[in-house]
Amino acid sequence: MAQAVEEWYKQMPIITRSYLTAAVVTTIGCSLEIISPYHLYLNPKLVVKQYQFWRLITNFLYFRKMDLDFMFHMFFLARYCKLLEENSFRGRTADFFYMLLFGASVLTGIVLVGGMIPYLSASFAKIIFLSNSLTFMMVYVWSKQNPFIHMSFLGLFTFTAAYLPWVLLGFSVLVGASAWVDLLGMIAGHAYYFLEDVYPRMTGRRPLKTPSFIKAMFADESVVVARPANVRFAPPADELHRD
């Protein structure tokens, strides 16, 4: 059993493995009181006035108490982060990292701006950890890229992947969890999906092109696809639009 878990862990792609490890270590550290959540949560005043910039990262690593909800989010993190990195972003580690960076930036920006809006500031002030929202963003992006996959929710009913975020949102409401967390993830996910997939098809421009300095951080492995002999193929879409 232990060997199987070890093999499963080693076979994870680098971003998924790193994020999952950081999340588990951070949450366990807080549960054992080795780390204090008060040093991790998102606090704009401490970030700006006391230069505690690490809070912009650590608030995405803590998943609250190690209970059923924690296991639930670890499952979704391991599953959908892995599916995205191995399939949609296969051979494009830098692009996948940039997607997470974009999502984290959007979520942080929403909370900061929302905290300045009258009548909404109190609700946004309660959102001090965005780890669940970032996980939900990955679920949303995956569902948009794989809309026709058939799924089952707890064996009760079946649906296509396009409705997965809404099913999970409804489940969160039923169990009494805050809908804000999931909604923020859906907003960030839709922003990425629109700018990366929809807008380029409409205009031919790609506003979320990964910066070169991020590409330099990762050595993307080339993906080799076998082609039948004596059959001509049109060049990939990426090559047609490559600068």
From TrEMBL:
Q: Where found in the cell?
A: Endoplasmic reticulum membrane
- GO cellular component labels: endoplasmic reticulum membrane
The protein's topology relative to the membrane is: Multi-pass membrane protein
**Record has Ligase as a keyword:** no
Query: By its UniProt entry, which InterPro entries does this protein fall under?
Result: DER1, Rhomboid-like_sf
Q: Which residues cross the membrane?
A: 19-41, 96-117, 123-141, 148-168, 174-195
Q: Which UniProt keywords apply?
A: Endoplasmic reticulum, Membrane, Transmembrane, Transmembrane helix
Q: Which GO terms describe its molecular function?
A: signal recognition particle binding
| GO BP term, example | endoplasmic reticulum unfolded protein response
Per the record, the coiled-coil ranges are none
Record family assignment: Belongs to the derlin family.
Q: What does this protein do?
A: May be involved in the degradation process of specific misfolded endoplasmic reticulum (ER) luminal proteins. May be involved in the degradation of misfolded endoplasmic reticulum (ER) luminal proteins.
Q: What is this protein called?
A: Derlin
Species of origin: Gossypium hirsutum
